[in-house]
Write a structure and sequence with these properties.
Number of strands: 7
Distance between the termini: 59 Å
Oligomer: single chain
Structural class: alpha/beta
Length: 168
């Protein structure tokens, strides 16, 4: 009897955990959760303002080396495709704007950089577990590609995915 009860409890807890995880995780094919954040230069931006455009959304932190590695690719995409309907948005999760500004200046970032609040509400909405996290969102606001981390070849893959979406 104890074994059956213990197994039932374990199965129930696993089911609850899976339900909680799946409810908060952003998946390919789902609508990207909308948010409003302030840019480092003080403007308010809302993700839904970019519907009908392709968006590359990147989560980063100043202490993240792979985030640094991703910035040249994001800058290149912004420069190459901004007139074709691409918007690159980066969300800094440091919680300290002076570190974010130093990072952005050092990386030569040419696209809007937003600051997640100290409470990290947008990071939680997107279930940020590791960085960088890069999402490619189509013109209807749906997540089409998700990249966790930044490895050799990631830049070329992201660029090809963006080009394909812009051609649709």
């Amino acid at each position: 009897m104890r074994t059956i009860t213990a197994q039932f409890l374990v199965a129930t807890l696993c089911l609850l955990l899976l339900t909680a995880v799946s409810a908060s995780t952003v998946s390919v094919g789902e609508r990207a959760p909308d948010f409003a954040l302030r840019t480092l230069d003080g403007k308010n931006l809302r993700l839904s303002e970019y519907r009908s455009e392709v968006v590359v959304l990147n989560f980063w932190a100043s202490w993240c080396n792979k985030c640094r590695d991703a910035m040249p690719t994001l800058n290149s995409l912004h420069t190459q495709y901004q007139n074709a309907g691409l918007h690159v948005l980066a969300i800094g999760v440091d919680g300290e704007s002076h570190k974010a500004l130093e990072f952005v200046d050092a990386a030569g970032v040419s696209f809007p950089v937003l600051a997640d609040s100290k409470k990290g509400s947008v990071s939680r909405m997107y279930d940020l577990g590791s960085m960088p996290l890069t999402l490619i969102i189509d013109r209807e606001g749906n997540v089409r590609h998700i990249h966790i981390g930044f490895k050799k070849g990631s830049g070329a893959t992201i660029a090809a995915e963006v080009a394909d979406l812009l051609a649709e």
